[in-house]
Amino acid sequence: MKRWAVLRGMFALLVAVATAFVSVAGATDEMPIEITSERMEVLSAPRRVVFSGEVVARQADVVMYADQMKVFFREGEDTVSRILAESRVRIVQGERTATGEAGVFFRDEGIVVLTGDPRVYQGKDFVEGDEITVYLEEERSVVKSREGVPARAIFHPREKSP
Hints:
Layout: H1 2-25, E1 34-36, E2 39-44, E3 47-59, E4 62-73, E5 80-93, E6 96-106, E7 111-115, E8 119-122, E9 125-128, E10 131-135, E11 140-144, E12 152-154
Antiparallel strand pairs: 1-3, 2-3, 3-4, 4-5, 5-6, 6-7, 6-8, 7-10, 8-9, 9-12, 10-11
C-alpha cells in the first residue's frame, strides 16, 4: 500500500513538472513533454525532482538542455514554484537559442533569469551581458551587466530578397 502511495506521489510530481514546462514554452496543456536524463531522483523533503546527466526536455518546437535540472514545488502542493537548470544551459526554439551556465524559471513571476555568460541568439544576431531576464508574459527582455562592463548586442543587416 505504501508503495502505491509513493508511486502516486511520483506521478503527481512528474505531471507538475510537465505543466511547468508547458508554461515556459508557451505551449498548450495538450502537448506532451519528454524529459530524458541519465538519472532522475524524486525527493519528498523538500519536495523536488532532480534530473541529472545530459538532461533534455522537449515540447513541441522547444528543447531545453542542461547537465542538471531541479524542479521545486510549493509547500504542501503539487504546483511547481521554480525550475533551476544548471551547467551548460541551452534553450532552442527554431532560430532562437539562449545559453548560460544557469537558468531559473520563476513560475509566479513568469520570468526566466539566465546567468553565467548568458547570450541570446537569433540567427547571426545576439545579445549578451551578466544577466538576461526574459519576461514571458510581456514579451520583453532586460540585459544587465556589472559596473564598468557594457551589455553588448550585435545585429547584422538583413539580406535583401532577389
